[in-house]
Amino acid sequence: MAARSALLAAGAAALVAVAAVFLLPDPSSRLPWPQQRRRFADMILANATIYTADPARPFAAAMAVRAGRVLRVGTYDSLKEFRGRHTKELNLSGNVVLPGFIDSHVHLIDGGLQLARVPLRGVRSKDEFISRVKGAVRDKHPGEWVRGGGWNNDFWGGDLPTAAWLDDISPDNPVWLSRMDGHMGLANSLAMKIAGIDKNTNDPVGGTIVRTTEREPTGLLVDAAMKLVFNVIPEVFVNDRREALLRASRHALMRGVTTIVDVGSYFPGTSENQTWQDFSDVYEWAHSMGKMMIRVCLFFPMPTWSRAADLIHERGRSLSGWIHLGGVKAFLDGSLGSSSALFYEPYEDAPGDYGLQLLDMDILLNATLESDKSGLQVAIHAIGDKAIDMLLDMFDKVVSLNGTKDRRFRIEHAQHLSPGAANRFGEHGIIASVQPDHLLDDADSAGKKIGIERAERSSYLFRSLLAGGAHLAFGSDWPVSDIYPLQAIRTAMSRQLPGWGAPWIATERLSLDDSLKAHTISAAYACFLDHVVGSLAEGKYADFVVLPSTSWSEFADDIPDHVLATYVNGKQAYP
């Protein structure tokens, strides 16, 4: 009997042991919830059409997200191990998912301010121009400045506006209205009087006061001449600039943009201090208050390169996942629309006018050498073919003097190239930071400005740049053009203007894949952020957009004009 009892006891013990292994909960489930949760995803996207921009796995059907990062992309079955009790599952029913768009060139706070000023983008007549300004004047007290921008004289036939358009409707209010490219602006007579501009005022270096044949100022100021008015416009209150950042960030998220390169409130004629004030008073404020909504990579005016280098040395390149310190920016020339881009040949409508060189090349070379030695990324604005070649020659000298390294020089805009220039970009892996939607503004006027043959030979050579080894990074230059990546991608692929029967320079059209990469992974590479954003790959931030297209073929055949949702850090940020 004793033996039998011992045998039963042993059997019971064995059953308990088996139950402990197979029937009881996983021991990890008895861990505190924060430790349990680390084993599982916060969210799984299922039944999706995911374009990852990662060559190792270009497409996937599902993605797991944990703690704001991509945990894994793949098939739904391959992600099941990450499902837990608290994992949110988002069934997308085939909807296309893309990495969050990166806008490689914006003036973010200025864009936010412009959203609250006189909107002149798209105005197509003198009467409409005057009407919009008149409406804004009605809301102002006497003496208060009226500001606005976005006008493009090519939209109403080419005639440039003058102060006379404004004087009768704004006798008691100074007015300043910037052209869409930011390289020209219009002041009314009261604004010019306050600024001390008259027929005896000399043109500043790097700028032009447009005049009548009697040398009277017309109200138009080009590039560095704009400083004459900027110097007398009251500073925008800090709270207004902070609100502009929040307004601009919401606008970007609505368009699917999760990261931007902010080249600052720095234009020819403006103070170098404004960008630094925005950094300390706006960006650091938003960061400390937990109000950042999108990621930013900041560039500072090149004349302040030593200050930028000191800041990076003191605080590192990333203040957090939200704010990254990129480098420095300079201007070499102006713009096509303002006839200040620098060309080898004169403008068709202004014989003898080749554009403006805004900086002495020795000064620019020395500042670039020092910036480069300090580890700063260098971005320089150049639009005309001569300006671009001057930069390419200068970059050759910098590489020769400072040696070879991964520096990722950037040429901002790179709109009009001389023969052979596209191939020179590849020699040093230069970034071509381009804005496809500028093509929509320039295609009609380029032939008038520089002649049809020159325009069609040199303009917006995206495919040639890629073939020459350049890295393409798409942006908007907002508020010059609107933040609108889906439209920019359509433009780069079609080069089709409204009302045109054929594409403009059809041989320079890009594929869908090249266009997407220019707004995602290539744009991330262009600002040294490709290790954390730009593609949906393990360990990167879970920044992505959901589109209304329900299959890849539907998306490729008809790129939509809006996003359904934008996610940052795996959390819905829009709508």
Integer average pLDDT:
92
Oligomer designation: single chain
Which architecture name of the domain at 38-99 and 535-574 does CATH use?
Roll
| CATH topology-level fold name of the domain at 38-99 and 535-574 | Urease, subunit C, domain 1
Radius of gyration: 28 Å
Shape: globular
Structural class: alpha/beta
Largest sheet: 8 strands, parallel
CATH C-level of the domain at 38-99 and 535-574: Mainly Beta
Amino- and carboxy-terminal Cα gap: 76 Å
Query: Looking at this structure, what is the CATH superfamily of the domain at 38-99 and 535-574?
Result: Urease, subunit C, domain 1
Number of helices: 20
**Range of strand content:** 15-25%
Number of strands: 24
Poorly predicted ranges (pLDDT <50, ≥5 residues)? 1-37
* Approximate helicity band: 25-40%
Strands of the largest sheet, in order across it?
8-15-16-17-18-19-20-21
GO molecular function, one term: hydrolase activity, acting on carbon-nitrogen (but not peptide) bonds
Pfam families: Amidohydro_3 (PF07969)
InterPro entries: Amidohydro_3, Metal-dep_hydrolase_composite, Metal_Hydrolase, YtcJ-like
Domain Amidohydrolase: 89-574
